[in-house]
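Q: What structure does this chain adopt?
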Amino acid sequence: MKNYFKQWKTSLFDFLNISKKPIDEALLVSVESTRFVVLDTETTGFDYDNDRMLCIGAITLQNGVIDISEGFEMYIHQEHYDKSSVQIHGILRDLIMSKPSELEVLQEFLAFLGDSIIIAHHTIFDITMINRALERNGLPLLTNKTLDTSFLYKKTLIKSNLLVYKDHYTLDDLADKFDISKKDRHTAMGDAYITAIAFLKIVKKLKEKKRKGEFLLKDLFYY
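A:
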């Protein structure tokens, strides 16, 4: 677990440096017109080298609408399995359902994803797990732009010496803050749905915070 947060903080430091780069003209469009893919992965653990994905869940978000009908959820057949993580994600090794190979799932996921912007909570973990799987299967790594709801949420907070801030906020924190049901928490699709709702709430707050001018996609990437 410590190793996971160390890697996450390092990647977050790199992510924050994006503000020093020239603005990408592709981001000078409205948030509403953009197709987002909100995703979550359930894994056997947090070790990038040894753990594996058990499921990828993703839904699309565009024009402020979460399209459940266009959802993506596939369970992956894995030889590696950690019984200790079952109490979190609930995915049993011998769960009776179709579980294609990692390669098949990745190919279908890439087709679903296209060039959409990826949204996740603590994005670096999910992206790294997917990229490691792509690398294992001889597929190109993801090049999609990404957004992290944990990072974006902190931008909605009022700066005050009277308030105590966390280094990172969990998905449970956001669900509690925005009164989002946690009924399907710790399932890939359930967490993707919670993340999507949280993202819409965050965008609303950031729009209110900006007040003047049109709220564009760049406003989510540059601060």
